[in-house]
Design goal:
With about 260 residues, this protein is α/β, with parallel strands linked by helices. It has seven helices and seven strands.
């Protein structure tokens, strides 16, 4: 399966969590093209994001997560490979050829245009189509829908930034992908926490946030990027229940704020 959907266990609310980068699977034909060390340790993965947000179902929130790794195809990139940022940072492509730090992923030749098109059809489009359907269902039921794109990143990624990332980064494409009261509800939760939080810097939302966020059509989108140390151990190699319990307090408050926001 290209994606998994986790239905809410409580009365449904108009929120969809998307986790496009937590997948760890590789189709066999793609696995054979990649370096073994890349397959065995896909380091750019948003590890355990689906586990971190496992409380959301009990709040009435629907979750969709990608099963295939972002190195198969990056679901949070423009399908036409248009860059998301133009400030000189390293940006991996729609079908990455290197990891965030420039290390090669392929043992021989990299995917050609025909192979990239094939991956768009088989892996990219189905995920985006389903996200759109789920958002439309929520909008039809509640009159509006909120997409929450959940991500994580290593505290230090020299290929992107020479200093540590903030612990929490809320992105809304410079306040264009969601209504002001939605943005405020989320921002209040993270800025009133004990975590270092920023807004639209250094990330303002990827393609999913920018594409689906249409507040004028009553579909609102936010991205939350977070340091992996928020919920993993100090070496960012294992899930930490202790750390996760702390950040979940903030995340639960964030969703409580969103649910209570009137539009």
């Amino acid at each position: 399966m290209i994606y998994s959907i986790i239905e809410p266990t409580a009365p449904k609310v108009p929120i969809l969590i998307s986790s496009p980068h937590s997948g760890t699977d590789f189709p066999e034909e793609i696995k054979q093209q990649l370096l073994p060390e890349a397959v065995n340790n896909p380091d750019d993965t948003d590890w355990f994001i689906d586990t971190l947000y496992n409380f959301a179902s009990d709040m009435g929130i629907t979750i969709i997560k990608a099963n295939y790794n972002r190195w198969v195809i990056d679901l949070n990139r423009d399908p036409n490979s248009k860059p998301l940022y133009n400030d000189g940072r390293v940006i991996t492509g729609l079908v990455p050829e290197t990891d965030f730090n420039g290390n090669p992923l392929y043992s021989d030749k990299t995917p050609d245009e025909q192979e990239i098109k094939r991956r768009i059809e088989h892996y990219y489009k189905p995920y985006h189509k389903k996200v759109g359907e789920l958002l439309q269902e929520l909008k039809d039921t509640f009159g509006y829908a909120i997409l929450f794109d959940a991500h994580s990143i290593r505290r230090m990624v020299p290929g992107i930034r020479k200093t540590p990332f903030p612990q929490l980064i809320l992105g809304d494409n410079d306040e264009t992908s969601a209504a002001p009261q939605i943005i405020k509800a989320a921002l209040d939760a993270i800025t009133q926490s004990n975590y270092e939080a920023t807004h639209n810097h250094p990330f303002k939302g990827g393609y999913i946030t920018r594409y689906f966020g249409k507040p004028e059509e009553n579909i609102h989108a936010l991205q939350l990027e977070m340091a992996k140390t928020n919920y993993m151990n100090a070496s960012e190699t294992a899930f930490s229940e202790e750390n996760a319990a702390e950040i979940r307090i903030v995340l639960k408050q964030l969703f409580t704020n969103l649910i209570a926001t009137k539009l």
